[in-house]
Amino acid sequence: MDSKEHGAVRPCLQLTVQLMSTYKRINSVYYKSLREKQAEKTMVSKDPTDGLTKHVDTSKKVDKIMAGHYVPAENEVLHGRYRITGKKLGMGTFGQVLEAYDETSSQGVAVKIIKNHSHFSVQAQTEIKILQYMHTSTHGDRCHIVRMVDHFTHKGHECLVFPLCSYNLYELLRSSQFKGVGLKLIRKFAKQIVESLEFLASINVIHCDLKPENIVIARPNRSNIKIIDFGSSCLSDKRVHTYIQSRFYRAPEILLGMKYTTAIDMWSVGCILVELHTGSPLFAGQDLPDQLRKIVQVLGMVPGHVVEQANPSVRCEYFAREQQHPGCTPTRNYTLRKKCPANDAPMSLESICTLGGRRLNKEPDHSSDDYAQFVDLVTRMLEIEYVCDVAYLFIFE
């Protein structure tokens, strides 16, 4: 029967008639609304510093708040004394570090404002306890460790206050256009860093995140340094985290999921000293297996008995037993499952440290003896089978 004769409605036909026109109408309404919302987010405000009008994207402020960051108001005073200047000194997963003016002492300070997530707040409490513990020691102030001058909670955010330092060693490298700094200056840095590690080892503290960014110059045009950022630190008998340290400076014990000691900090320092001279990270791996390859490429294969102490899942995923010839005595040797690319030829630590000899005898304090001492020091620090807690046999003086 013909439905038209009885005036019946054809639902399918009604739903599809002018469907494209409907979609176009919906799109135009949607994008108009979207543009209006974007316009609302960007407001025009007056900048009191230059008298000019500028656009402030309030969506960025909302994003920071949603991420757990504290966004201070202009010239906001924290804890009744620390006026925020507006200059950001650093930012990380923990939160941010802002410059402030201490209205009580009339000095500049750095305020580390932790995200208001419970995990970061708990870690901040641990950092505060470790910093307090270090400076109750007789030698705390004399061992190149940054001093926490105050701490408080502000609107749910843990805040730690430190003296305002100059710049960090990464910024020093950047100022050299990553050409590296001379052995004489590195010698001064190395002596202080090793002294700080001796002190940390004596009170059983592991820093767990030594890198160029976490070693700062205390004053401009001086070589005195301070170790900063104990946010990942722990006591050697209360190890909380199993995967720590920034990748380029991560010790084999951490890569392999093994128990670790204060020796992991010494490994990081060895990497840092080489980078300070060459201008490039010593082991710049893109991921865990590549990091292992970079280390093996320079230092040789990880000894079999060390591999056998590794976390079983790590050992199975990244290492394979060395093939045995029939009739030969079985060995405990291993190889990497993912080999180094053919064009990545093995490099000696000496060749890397001396830049292939390009700076040998080209400037003061770069003699063969100077380089021999430098190479010997970093070789001790980068010993995979590390048995010494710190470099007590310090000869690079």
Describe this structure in words.
This protein has 397 residues and is an alpha+beta fold. It folds into two domains: 54-163, Phosphorylase Kinase, domain 1; 169-381, Transferase(Phosphotransferase) domain 1 (Transferase(Phosphotransferase), domain 1, Orthogonal Bundle). The chain is built from 13 helices and 14 strands. It has helices spanning 11-16, 19-41, 58-66, 118-135, 169-175, 183-202, 252-255, 263-278, 288-299, 304-307, 312-318, 349-353, 368-381, and strands at residues 42-46, 53-57, 77-78, 82-92, 95-102, 107-114, 150-154, 157-163, 205-206, 215-217, 225-227, 234-235, 319-321, 334-336. A six-stranded antiparallel sheet has the order 3-4-5-6-8-7, with helices on one face. Strand 7 and strand 8 (157-163) form a beta hairpin. Helix 6 packs antiparallel against helix 8 (263-278) and helix 8 (263-278) packs antiparallel against helix 13. The protein is globular. It starts with 10 loop residues before the first helix and ends in a 16-residue tail after the last helix. The relative contact order is 0.08. It comes from Aphanomyces astaci. ATP binds at residue 112. GO terms for molecular function: ATP binding; protein serine/threonine kinase activity. This is CMGC/DYRK/DYRK1 protein kinase, variant 2.
Please summarize what this structure is:
With 397 residues, this protein is an alpha+beta fold. It contains 13 helices and 14 strands. It has two domains: 110 residues, Phosphorylase Kinase, domain 1 (2-Layer Sandwich), CATH 3.30.200; 213 residues, Transferase(Phosphotransferase), domain 1, CATH 1.10.510.
